[in-house]
Amino acid sequence: MEAEKARLLALCALPAAVTVLVLVAWPIWLTFELSLHRVRLFDILRDRPLAFTTANYERLLGDARFWESLANTGIFVTGSVGLAILWGLGSALLLDRRFPCRAAVRLAVILPWAVPASIGSLVWMFLADGHLGLFNHLLLSIGLIAEPIAFLVHHQFAMPMVILAQAWHAYPFFTVMLLAALQAVPAELHDAARVDGATPLQRFRHITLPALRNTLVVTGFLSVLAAIRDVETILVMTGGGPGRATETLAVRIWNESFRFYDIGFGAAQGVVAFTLSLLLMGFALRRLMRSFWG
Amino acid sequence: MRRLARRAGMAMGITLLLCLALFPIYWMLITALRPKSVTMVWPPRLLPDPGELSLATITAVARDTPALGWAWNSLLIAVLTTLAVVLVATLAGYALSRAQGGAARGLGTVILVAKMLPSTLLVVPLYVMFHRAGLLGGPLTVVLANLAFAAPFATWMMKGFFDSIPPMIEEAALLDGCSHLGALRRVALPLAMPGIAAVALYAFIVSWNDFLFARAFLPGGADTTLTVGATQFLSETEMEWNRVMAVALLATLAVGALFLWLQRHFVSGLTRGHD
């Protein structure tokens, strides 16, 4: 009986094991291997033998662009995740209250989620356009600027613009998760605190925030990882430009591999990104494991 | 008085939230429905004249560009990915939920780590692997890549659903003479249907929305998906915003409709297992 059950469970796990092995583990191993070879895209396509080298890593250490892309990753990730958390928290707190048409409003607020990231980026691109964009029209008409600004080709405004677009796409995830966590807070807690004379701010600090902490940590962490790997928003809106103003590590890997065809050098940066994510995961894995195994 | 002020503040907050959420979607819709002569004019007009709205751009895009072919590719890839993800994740979620011991924990941890890995990292090595396997350029590549991306999270979701089904129900079926496979098929699977629906929706949305894999593995031009196709109307010389937004609208409508229809399942599926 027990043996039959074990066999069935092993069989059930098999497709997932094969998927992870072939489509995740093997590619990661291949990234390491490619990073240690001098390899251009054409070598792959013509099946040429590859020469072993550590030159990719040596080049990386002395490469100013690499450090720049790391800094850009930091700005993009903190900016977009921070904004998305604030946006999500604010909306969850508001949507948790009672008001007319609440269900419809909730649905409307999380609707950006249903828009594909690349499509949302296209819309923001149009809004921020220097010739026909609505933002320029609005800013001009309230007198905040004197001349239209081409936001996405301006080295100072490009990064805030892609951060805004990314946060617009990312915040509904926080809204949904935090709203679910808020609904689990017993109303009696708030009532009791109110009776004891706690101000709204005190109630937020001592009741709401502790109740949300676990959800905030898990969702925040997942979103940081998602933002590190995100490449669609930036690829669509700026391609990493102007110059390299929005070139994050993920975008750099893409550009190096598919625009300059230097697969080996791209892979070396892939190894760095992989190590970076793994380090981050190490911090949070225990906590996530606990929520996974219950 | 204070109550009134709080009410007003809340109304303002909600209005602001709604504007921020909906305005870009409104702008996409209105641009797709307006003629080029209106959208390419400065200053842009916020509200449309009722007479200028028409489906002309959308029908023109369907007629003159490969947009319908892109939509077909998107649909094919999304459906195949959904089937594969549901199969893999349901079985694995069941195994992880019911199994005890080191092997299950090991697989669970690997899946958890895989879920968090940067998909950007997978693009280049998968490109090389697909080339060596002679698959490059076909829709199967995008299906496999989406499977690798979506299966880990879907498995996590499914494990949460099976965890909420008491094993006692299956044990009762076993006592009644059911085999283990029978207990899975006749008892656990039907009870997990809401979870399977949520996972299917998740997989469909992820693969329909994919841009990166389709951009990397498909040749482009007529042979790509809606999300990538929409960007092809933008060039250095001309930005055809009407056409971009018409294709964008097509890409959004499918998932948007599904989302509106099934959001309750989806949201409950997502929030489970995160407590």
From TrEMBL, chain B:
Supply the PROSITE patterns for this chain: ABC_TM1
Does the entry feature the keyword Transmembrane, yes or no? Answer: yes
Q: What is this protein called?
A: Carbohydrate ABC transporter permease
| SUPFAM superfamilies per UniProt | MetI-like (SSF161098)
* Keyword flag Disulfide bond: no
Give the transmembrane region(s).
Answer: 70-95, 107-130, 136-158, 187-208, 244-262
Q: Where in the cell is it found?
A: Cell membrane
For the ABC transmembrane type-1 domain, which residue ranges apply? 71-262
How does it sit in the bilayer?
Answer: Multi-pass membrane protein
| Family the UniProt entry places it in | Belongs to the binding-protein-dependent transport system permease family.
Q: Sorted alphabetically, which CDD domains does this protein's record hold? A: TM_PBP2 (cd06261)
